[in-house]
Amino acid sequence: MSGHTVQDNIVAVRGRLESALQKAGRTPGSASLLAVSKKKPAEDVQAAYEAGQRSFGENYLQEALDKQQALSMLDITWHFIGAVQSNKTREIAEHFDWCHTVDRLKTARRLSEQRPDHLPPLNVCLQVNISRQESKSGAAPEEVETLAAEIATLPGLSFRGLMAIPAPTVSFNEQRLPFRALRELLDTLRINHPDQPLDTLSMGMSDDIDAAITEGSTLVRVGTAIFGARAS
């Protein structure tokens, strides 16, 4: 894929994002775009960077580390958005700015302990299985408050908010329901933990951006609409 095509796609997705914010009556720029670059080459990431994109999400650790090395000259904010395996927490803690997929206390503690002292705290989101899907990772909604209280005490982490991947639905109103539930969970956490930033709702992808923005998303994760279909 040429840089020109990636650039066009970035412009189109940003336009869609701003249109959704306007329709929802929200402030322009109050949600940002996370470009999901898994299974895409470093050249595509660089093309998106040249189009003004700075935040990139990766699911697979080794692939991400290879890209980070290849693109070390660029000022990229790297987000880990894949499943966090215990044997990979150290490298996530050492090489990423964000981790969206913390869903248990053991993982949070390891990330905090393994975050290098010379780096700022790792920004983390607590992943919530908001649709209670057996096939999905994430804490159950009723576990969120207990986990949040523990995560908030960990010195190597900055607890930024919640992330979810709801079960797919077709209608706009159906899409809104799990996003609303996640927002309400975050609203409660903000009341109970006023000392934490809690400024992030990582929710919404290519098919449900509008519903996510309507319910308060601050960060939408978009891959295919920017980079094209991924290799299997």
TrEMBL record:
Q: What does this protein do?
A: Pyridoxal 5'-phosphate (PLP)-binding protein, which is involved in PLP homeostasis.
Keywords linked to the UniProt accession: Pyridoxal phosphate
Q: Which residues form a coiled coil?
A: none
**Name of the protein this chain belongs to:** Pyridoxal phosphate homeostasis protein
Gene3D superfamilies the UniProt entry points to? Alanine racemase
What is a GO molecular function of this protein?
pyridoxal phosphate binding
Per its UniProt record, what InterPro entries does this chain match? Ala_racemase_N, PLP-binding_barrel, PyrdxlP_homeostasis
Q: Which residues carry this modification: N6-(pyridoxal phosphate)lysine?
A: K38
| Record family assignment | Belongs to the pyridoxal phosphate-binding protein YggS/PROSC family.
